[in-house]
Amino acid sequence: MTTRTPGQDPASAPSTASGPSNGATPSTAPGPDHPSELTAAVLDGSVLSPGTPARTAVFEAVGADPDGPVTRELLALARHVSPAVRRTVLTLLGELTHGRTPWPAPVEAAGARLHDPDPDVRRAAARLLVRTGAADRARTALGELTDPVTRIALADALLGTPGTSCPPGPLRTDPLPEIRLLGCLEELATAPREQWPELDAQTLAEVTALTAHDADRGYSVGSRWGRALYRQEREADCYATAPRLLAGDAGAYGRRVGVQLAHRAFQEWRAAPDTLAPHLVRLLPTAPPDLRTLVVHALCASRTATRRSADALAALLPDPTTAPAADPAGPGAGPFDAVAWEVTYALATTGDPRAAPYVHALLTAGARPPGMLAALRGLLRAGAADTGQLAAYARTLLRSDTGDARSLALGVLDALDPAAAAPCVPDLLTALRNACETAEARGAALATWPELSLVGTLGRIGPPAAAAVPLLTTLTRDSRRRPGHGALALARITGDRAPLETYLRTHPPEGRRPTADHSALFQWLLDHGGLDPEQSARLRGAVLGRGGAMQVRGSLVLWRNEGPPVAAELLAVLPDYLDDDLFGPVAMTTLAAMGPHARPALPHLRALIDRRTRLPLHAGSEDADLRADEQLLEAAERTAAALTGGDGR
Predict the structure, then answer these.
(1) Higher-confidence residue: 216 or 575?
(2) Cross-referenced InterPro entries, in alphabetical order (predicted)?
(3) Backbone phi and psi for residue 458, each to the nearest 5 degrees, phi listed first
(4) How confident is the model at residue 636 (pLDDT cuts 50, 70, 90)?
(5) pLDDT higher than 90, residue 6
(6) On the CB side of 216, how many CA atoms lie within 13 Å of its CA?
(7) Cα 484 from Cα 516, distance rounded (Å)
């Protein structure tokens, strides 16, 4: 039973809204016992999962008729007795309004739920009200309502949504300290220098007076503070403020804000991990569990901070002989909880061998937490992984019937040397036959991803995979993603140039279309007898003709084939890729191979290295952007050292 707050409107009975039965029998018609597909997807929350059929159908239906039956069904569900269902509906309505001209239905749903008995529903309603463009109505509600939860959520949404015309100044005198703090932080981001001392003092005073902050449920106070300091280019002030907060100058909640501020600083400034990680590490021995979790998350977000705090992080890991829970979807409970896995992942990906016992213990237990492949690759690069155990683990995964298990197995095998991976050839062959049968049953014209991955792995194993040759010779489906993958696998296994030469001869350049990435094919031919004049000319045209994958990945092959005469042409294109987290390291590998001939690229490398702030990348999350920037910086420093003999000049 939902708890109802006095003076607020009660939740209605469960919705039984549905579309017409279309002649369905009473036993299968939509209703309380047989909800419609939309209602069922809302009830279980799957409608919020990208790519689900129900979600796609909702977006298509609302796009065709914003006030049609689907919207009416959602509005009925917004009055469902379950708070979780009401939150789901409001969240979905907010997503439906993105990029779409606002229409009245979501606005009315949001306004009605501002008085919901569930606080999280009220928060969702406040966000939806602002997101639907009803900023005037949200400002009015902020001035009239008395419920702190709703008012804080309204202020949070108004200040965080562009174009809402909500001046932060008046909020600095609001009766609620949380709203005063939000107003301070928003004004701090744009205030002139002479106002900084006053705003800094009030911000610190408001944080000190709080024991928690309702707005932390979304974009944390520390992150907001860090964003404001970043927008004003106040790096030194950030490095002075965070240690004060971490030392307890603003109380227990201030410490939490300090961790958030340090984490945000890691994401914005390159010097932050070296500067602030030692202050975070000092908290680990005595911090309460929830604060320690935040500290670990901040330290593990940065490769630099992980290395600086590796000893302290490793000390947090449980006894590796303790068997973890065998949860294939995650690290499980008990000694290998989420925090322990976060530490293990961070140490492993930076090549710290102390992570190896924990990774192998998880493998033995059958656990496959997210990031396992990256952790294994990090340990393999450091020579800290048991290759025999990994090969046996891959064989077990290959015998599974799930695509995720197969992908992890192939990722592991691709990271092993051919000799270590060779025992898996029989299992790879079985998996490839099954994948081919599935593709043929579907009538696939191009190689499916399972086929492509399995063929590629067999090719990388090379001669030990000779048993695969009869099957590989029967495969005719090519791939746009990896063109010529079958011919390349045959060449790698047999050592025969003929499959690749035939493939290139029968697949001429593609005219005006983007150049296919044939770099691996040309590289193998170059390493096994060299390129003939026709192949050399085609390689040159593919690399220098158009930008893209072939240009950057084929540049090293072209350099090795032609040498110094092509240096100027490569230097005209490769610097354009240096700040790309996907292609930058590949381009730098070519520059390093060019040695002194690539010295004209040093100004580009130094410009990347000398940045104080992070590169504007799009790797999937702010922490992923942070790590991608660190990896690009590491690669740039190695490349500059290679070009200068290590003297940096």
Answers:
(1) 575
(2) ARM-like (IPR011989), ARM-type_fold (IPR016024)
(3) -60, -40
(4) very high
(5) no
(6) 17
(7) 10
Residue 118 CA, chain-centre distance (Å), reads: 31
**C-alpha span between 36 and 42 (Å, rounded):** 10
In 269-355, alpha helices (H): 272-281, 289-301, 303-308, 310-314, 338-349
Long-range own/partner contacts, residues 132-138 (CB < 8 A, 24 or more apart):
132/93, 132/94, 132/97, 132/102, 132/106, 132/107, 133/97, 133/102, 133/107, 134/102, 134/107, 134/110, 135/161, 135/163, 135/164, 135/165, 135/166, 137/107, 137/111, 138/164
pLDDT band (50, 70, 90) for residue 590: very high
Structure tokens at 571: 């230097």
pLDDT tens by residue, 287-343: 999 999 999 999 999 999 999 999 999 999 988 776 454 443 444 434 468 899 999
Task: Supply 287's token pair.
Answer: 């911090």
Look up residue 428 and give its two tokens.
Answer: 């790879």
pLDDT of residue 16: 35
Which of 313, 333, 316 shows the shortest CA–CA distance to 325?
A: 333
Q: Which residues contact 430 (CB under 8 A, 6 or more apart)?
A: 398
Integer Rg of the chain from CA: 29
| Whether the Cβ atoms of residue 483 and residue 507 lie closer than 8 Å to each other | yes
Q: How far apart are CA 32 and CA 553, in angstroms?
A: 58
Burial class of residue 161 in the structure, from the number of CB atoms within 10 Å of its CB (0-12 exposed, 13-18 middle, 19+ buried): middle
Indicate the burial class of 400 (C-beta count within 10 angstroms; 0-12, 13-18, 19 or more): middle
Residue 22 has pLDDT above 80, yes or no: no
Distance, CA of 150 to CA of 176 (rounded, Å): 12
**CB atoms < 10 A from the CB of 264, how many?**
26
CB 521 within 8 A of CB 487: yes
CA distance 55 to 59: 6
**The overall pTM is greater than 0.85:** yes
pLDDT at 165 over 90: no
Residue 164 has pLDDT above 60, yes or no: yes
Location of structure tokens 């520059």: 591
- Which pLDDT belongs to residue 35? 61
Q: Which two tokens stand for residue 63?
A: 């796009």
- Residue 23 pLDDT: 37
**What count of residues does the chain have?**
649
Contact 247, 290 (CB under 8 A): no
Q: What is the pLDDT of residues 101-146, one digit of tens each?
A: 888 999 999 999 999 999 999 999 999 999 888 889 999 999 999 9
> Could you tell me the sign of the dihedral formed by the alpha carbons of 267, 268, 274, 277, in that order?
negative
DSSP assignment, residue 512? T
The tokens describing 624, both together, are 């992923």
Do residues 138 and 158 make contact, with C-beta atoms less than 8 angstroms apart?
yes
Residue 269: phi, psi to the nearest 5? -120, 140
- Residue 606: closest CA among 573, 640, 572: 640
